[in-house]
Amino acid sequence: MHNPKIRHTAGFFLSLIAAMLWGMLPVALKELLSGMDAITIVWYRFFVAGVVLFAWLAVQRKLPQVLQQTAPIKWFLLIAAIGLCINYFLFSYSLNFVNGETSEAVIQLTTLFLILGGVFVYKEPFFAVQKFGTLLIMLGLLLFFNDRLSGLLNLENRETIGVIIVVFAAITWTVYALLQKQLLNSFSSVQILFLIYAFSIVVLLPFISPLSLFELTEVQFYLLLFCCLNTIIAYGCFAEALNCWDASKVSAVLALAPLFTIGSLKLVVFLQPDYAFSDRLSMLSLLGALLLVVGSALTALMPVFQQYRANKRATLIEPV
């Protein structure tokens, strides 16, 4: 017998695990970049995840049949693959210029970009709650960078370069997400990810330094392993959460990722007070991060609000 409570509980915790893993990812990547370049890290993440997804789909006999698809679907798939591949690289590369808290805060722009993309591409409505959430996101960013705004206006500032790179990473992820909406009519989410990973493995191969794997310290090797497993487990939890829960609720929980990034770095700084890769945020910046999370959650939860209003109206007009 179907038990909604169990599905709600599973959906929440699976979403929370994904948010936690994605929140911890920039912390691991930042440390790993001292031993391996960004493009090689991304390639290893794609390679491990691609092998695992290939084995899973092969056992399930669900390997995607790309050649049987129409030309528009093939083009959508190609552009989506390029978008996600660039997103992975840019996000990792940005950590050469900014710390984990900053990268995870700025990448929250994906929520705003995805909403705007839905409005302009799919002609979706832009509701008052989403406008308020957008306002909170922008206000949150201003507060987050309150003591660094003047420095960000200088294009020669390394942090400015890093922020710009993360913004472009958010744009490329939005392109992938908008196209996935079309691709889901032809493939499952796992098949789409496998095809993108396979594409990226081949495309990035000429640019990597695979032997740098053997130059990593023991700690760096385990960080790379964590990043690879993070790609598999986080996306796996995300996909399974969508099977248990509403997509809007999943997205709202995923908005907590910056708090996990900040929390992870606070713990590292507590254990190692001289740790260099942390912005040591002020209370005002922490408030900005909180507003980012609330704004992202509000915009993601819009379908829930709409459903609640629709149910309330239906109740009011029911005949007595």
TrEMBL record:
Alphabetical keyword list: Cell membrane, Membrane, Transmembrane, Transmembrane helix
Domain EamA intervals: 10-145, 161-299
InterPro entries documented for this protein: AA-Vitamin_Transporters (IPR050638), EamA_dom (IPR000620), EmrE-like (IPR037185)
Domain of life: Bacteria
Gene Ontology, cellular component aspect: plasma membrane
Membrane topology annotation: Multi-pass membrane protein
Residue ranges of the TM segments: 12-29, 41-59, 71-93, 105-122, 134-155, 161-179, 191-213, 219-238, 250-271, 283-305
A Pfam family annotated for this UniProt entry: EamA
Compartmental location: Cell membrane
Name of the protein: EamA family transporter
Organism: SAR86 cluster bacterium
